[in-house]
Amino acid sequence: MNRKQWLVLLGIAMVALTIVPFIVFEKRLEHTGGPGILAFEFAATKARASQILAEWGPKGRHTARLSLIVDYAYMISYGGFFTLAGLATRDLARTRDWRRLATAGVIVPFFATAAALFDATENVFLLLVLGGHGGAHAPLIATICSSIKFTLITIAIAYVVWGLVWRAATATRVKLTSTPAPTTAGENSTKTRRLT
What is the 3-state secondary structure (H, E, C) of 151-172? Predict the structure, then answer.
């Protein structure tokens, strides 16, 4: 498979793994009367994490565990998609001599991969908390990893969007400069008189 085919495949998987877990897992957690999984990611302290687990109850904790396990597939999809999209953006920037975009592309595309790795680490510690392990450190480490994850993936997404916007703007400028100026009626009559 080439890069374009991988982008399509990973893009479809990413969208599916964004929508389906939200409908299935988040709704179930909502029905427990407790917060969503995002609040658990940013619990930061053992006391807050324990409070969330108590609010969820056994069913909510089971749902959260399933959500975190399925999330590993989501990491592969978004990490792979935005890494490949970033590399495609970098290659286009090099071809068209967009220097700032090309320079940023040396490292930024790999932020998506790094984000997925921090996401994976975060989930390990959240699963430890769900299992009653990790003490006071696990919630804090999970929150730190989550913060870094969101920062990195936001930058990676912004880079791809930057490339798309720059490409569209360049195409618009080329189209405008290549369009011949309209000829006025006065110019047409002058040309006619000169021919006669």
Answer: HHHHHHHHHHHHHHHHHHHHHH
Dihedral sign for Cα 27, 13, 84, 161, please.
Answer: negative
What pTM does this model have? 0.85
- Confidence (pLDDT) at 179: 61
CB-CB contact of 92 with 167 (8 Å): yes
Domain ranges in the chain are 3-179
Q: Report whether pLDDT(195) > 60.
A: no
126 close to 72: Cβ distance less than 8 angstroms? no
Please state, in angstroms and rounded to a whole number, the distance separating the CA atoms of residues 153 and 133.
28
Length of the chain: 196
User: Does 178 score more than 80 pLDDT?
Assistant: no
Task: For 23-91, give the secondary structure using H, E and C.
Answer: HHHHHHHHHCCCCCHHHHHCCCCHHHHHHHHHHHHHHHHHHHHHHHHHHHHHHHHHHHHHHHHHHHHHH
Give the span between the Cα atoms of 68 and 36, in whole angstroms. Answer: 12
Give pLDDT tens digits for 99-148. 999 999 999 999 999 999 999 999 999 999 999 999 999 999 999 999 99
Nearest to 111 by CA among 94, 76, 131, 86: 86
**Residue 88 CB coordination number (10 Å):** 17
